[in-house]
Design goal:
The complex is a heterodimer of chains A (104) and B (233). Chain A has 104 residues and is of the alpha+beta class. Chain A has helices at 9-19, 28-35, 39-51, 77-103, and strands spanning 26-27, 55-60, 70-75. Classes of the chains: A alpha+beta (104), B mainly alpha (233).
Chain lengths: 104, 233
């Protein structure tokens, strides 16, 4: 039987948000706005994902002069695969729920 | 012309700077990321909220990096409550033994730390307590001592020893509370919040709190499971 991953709701939300554009580099504040995660929750998750090799980061030069360089993040191939397994597991679960609901 | 920076923005910048200083050195790039990110947030209130979150995240990372629970000092400190729990298990058998062997001096000393400050009130309870229940307390105490020893040796079986001791103690407690002599010994004419509520609740919850800390210690030291993907928060 496949092992169940014990992942917080916030981590799941972040992974799914990043899976939306797996090749795009995303900034912390943008991710915070999309996922509605506060910085106090977002940064520890980003750091943990990075430690686990699921996330890569780099400094991006500003699009407009006068703006600061910003840290940007995106999922590694391993991170993308991991996020996809989460999506698959979630859809399987909801499918099972529908079957049980229909049978009841 | 000089651009004016609001007080809110100044506080936000100061907080982010503090967060960057609190973060461990290994997280330097993250500290810089926080400091840069705040510069692109337009609304001052949002910047302040973001900065407060950064401070929280930094302290969290700092505490994680300190790894307090997995130090030799933490294990040594934890040995004391575990030994206290062992002593608590040995208390009733030793008091009973002292009473039976006419060791009134020792019985009086031990009785002084019981509710009511006198061992005489426990004589009917000691007479009614079966020997196997005393044995359960003794075994539970020995298991607690085993847990303390394994804790000193940094052997992870300390948690198994502790859980076994706690389980045995809990079973013994159920039998003990079912005895009419127990209820008689612990019923007092005048109510006393400290004696009747505070101390019993503290004594009941204390071993579970120690168990929770020990569990956290074992949890952090586990090797990662062999799976395709690592565990994430």
């Amino acid at each position: 039987m496949a092992r169940q991953h014990n992942i917080s709701r916030q981590t799941r939300a972040l992974l799914l948000a990043m899976l939306g554009g797996p090749l795009d580099w995303r900034h912390g504040y943008d991710l915070s706005q999309q996922t509605e995660l506060k910085s106090g929750t977002l940064y520890p998750i980003l750091m943990r994902l990075s430690d686990q090799g699921l996330l890569e980061s780099k400094w991006l030069e500003p699009a407009r002069p006068g703006k600061p360089a910003r840290h940007a993040y995106r999922l590694t191939p391993n991170g993308v695969a991991f996020a996809r397994t989460l999506v698959a597991a979630a859809s399987q679960k909801s499918g099972r729920r529908k079957i049980v609901g229909a049978a009841a | 012309m000089k651009s004016r920076i609001s007080i809110t923005r100044r506080i936000a910048l100061a907080l982010t700077g503090h967060a960057a200083r609190v973060l461990p050195l290994a997280r330097r790039s993250w500290a810089e990321a926080m400091e840069m990110e705040i510069l692109v947030i337009e609304r001052d209130a949002d910047a302040l909220s973001w900065a407060a979150g950064c401070v929280f995240a930094s302290y969290l990372e700092r505490i994680v990096a300190m790894n307090l629970l997995h130090t030799r000092g933490a294990r040594i400190v934890l040995v004391f409550p575990v030994i206290f729990l062992a002593a608590r298990e040995f208390f009733a058998p030793i008091l009973t033994l002292a009473y039976r062997l006419q060791g009134t001096g020792l019985a009086r000393i031990l009785g002084a730390v019981t509710p009511g400050d006198d061992y005489h009130r426990f004589i009917p309870l000691m007479n009614a307590t079966p020997i196997w229940l005393q044995g359960m307390w003794l075994v539970s105490g020995l298991l607690f001592l085993g847990s303390a020893w394994q804790l000193l040796r940094n052997n992870r079986t300390y948690f198994e020893f502790f859980v076994l001791a706690l389980a045995l103690e809990s079973i013994a407690m159920i039998f003990e509370h079912a005895m009419p002599a127990y209820r008689d010994a612990f019923s007092f004419s005048s109510p006393n919040f400290r004696r009747d509520v505070l101390i019993p609740v503290a004594m009941f919850t204390f071993p579970f709190m120690v168990a929770a800390v020990l569990w956290l210690m074992t949890r952090g030291r586990q090797r990662p499971a062999q799976t395709d993907f690592p565990d994430v928060p």
